[in-house]
TrEMBL record:
Natural source organism: Xanthobacter oligotrophicus
UniProt-recorded name of the protein: Glycosyltransferase family 4 protein
Domain Glycosyl transferase family intervals: 169-303
Residue stretches making up the Glycosyltransferase subfamily 4-like N-terminal domain: 18-125
Superkingdom of this protein's organism: Bacteria
Length: 370
């Protein structure tokens, strides 16, 4: 099939550091190319892919110096996609709802994956007005607050099996990975580690919007507890080591998480997850197999003491069965084939040799797909 992947322009594809949506777009794109499809990626110019890259700006906008209006660049990209719509059997969009008015004439061949939270009342009015667009949810729970729309499927995220290697031994510290923000609750992670008497390593970015939260609440907690280490934002290469050597990942969220990519990243390493049972978490975690679901700091502390009962090999096997990028791509292709506007039948798949990703991180991924 001739497939357009339309990515956000905030980060490159894949992102150099933080960036869940762009990471998933990269994994999906590479799997589709590997499966023999003709894929065009609309993304920033510093993206690296084995698909045909249509550069919509020089670099990911988060790294672009000077004043930048993301809306301007995204509208320019969507207009370019509209002009070229007849070149594709499927247009797969990852910018939430921004493309709705621009691509309405091509909605039958247009598939939208919603990557963010959907409990925003103002957005519901727009979704209701464009209810004929086929949509993909990344968890069943993500759909809960939505008005009636055209759900095509729920497709959980997936990772390349050889991206983050299995670590059979783990380590003696707890890990927190993601963003420093109120909804991610790093304060809970610190409280759990302190009460459990275990070291905690925090690898996280601090967005400008969350700077006050970091300075006023989290930084003082880090400095007051010698068993807590703040590492900062890390890349993919560092992530494998960081997660693989952890005794467990703490995921103490306080919001309706649409998916939680970091949970399956930990599973890939064989590292169990202790997570608050919010949003998609009960769909992603298998209680007593890949980790534990909790509803309080006290429950989480108790579960830290149970970590030795979990089989890291079983966690890795569950990851391979449920959350591989190959499975994710096959699920998407099945939906592509059902779109009313997909004008051509899917050809017989000729799987090309796939580069082996021996190293971990953006450098390795980029070397492999050049």
């Amino acid at each position: 099939m001739r497939i357009a992947q339309v990515a956000p322009l905030i980060e490159s594809v894949p992102p150099r550091r933080y960036g869940g949506t762009e990471r998933i777009v990269s994994y999906l794109t590479e799997e589709l190319v590997h499966a023999g499809h003709e894929v065009t990626l609309f993304a920033s110019g510093d993206s690296l892919t084995s698909a045909v890259l249509e550069a919509m700006c020089d670099t990911g906008l988060r790294l672009t110096p000077g004043p930048v209006d993301p809306l301007l660049y995204h509208l320019l990209m969507l207009e370019e996609v509209r002009k070229r719509a007849d070149d594709f059997d499927v247009i797969h969009v990852h910018v939430d709802l921004l493309h709705y008015p621009v691509l309405r004439d091509y909605r039958a061949q247009c598939l939208t994956t919603l990557h963010g939270r959907l409990d925003l009342p103002a957005a519901h009015r727009l979704y209701a007005n464009f209810a004929d667009y086929p949509l993909i949810s990344i968890s069943d729970h993500q759909r809960t607050p939505m008005p009636p729309v055209n759900w095509a499927a729920t497709i959980h995220h997936g990772l390349p099996k050889d991206l983050l290697p299995f670590n059979a031994k783990g380590g003696d510290y707890l890990a927190f990975l993601g963003r420093i923000s109120p909804e991610k609750r790093p304060d809970r992670a610190i409280a759990i580690a302190v009460r459990a008497g275990m070291p905690l390593k925090i690898a996280a970015k601090v967005d400008r919007a969350d700077q006050a939260y970091w300075e006023d609440m989290i930084r003082p907690m880090v400095e007051a507890n010698p068993n807590v280490e703040f590492i900062g934002e890390i890349d993919e290469r560092q992530k494998a080591d960081f997660l693989g050597k952890a005794a467990a990942l703490l995921f103490p969220i306080d919001w309706p998480e649409p998916f939680g990519l970091v949970m399956i990243e930990a599973m890939s390493c064989g590292t169990p997850v202790i997570a608050f049972s919010r949003g998609s978490v009960p769909e992603v975690l298998d209680e007593g197999v890949t980790g534990h679901l909790v509803n309080s700091v006290e429950e989480a502390v108790a579960r830290v003491g149970d970590l030795s009962r979990l089989d890291r090999s079983a966690i890795r096997r569950t990851f391979e069965r449920r959350f591989s990028a190959e499975r994710m791509a096959k699920d998407y292709v099945a939906v592509y084939q059902q779109l009313a506007g997909a004008r051509e039948p899917t050809p017989a798949i000729r799987r090309a040799p796939k580069p082996e990703l021996r190293l971990v991180g953006n450098d390795a991924v980029h070397d492999a797909i050049r």
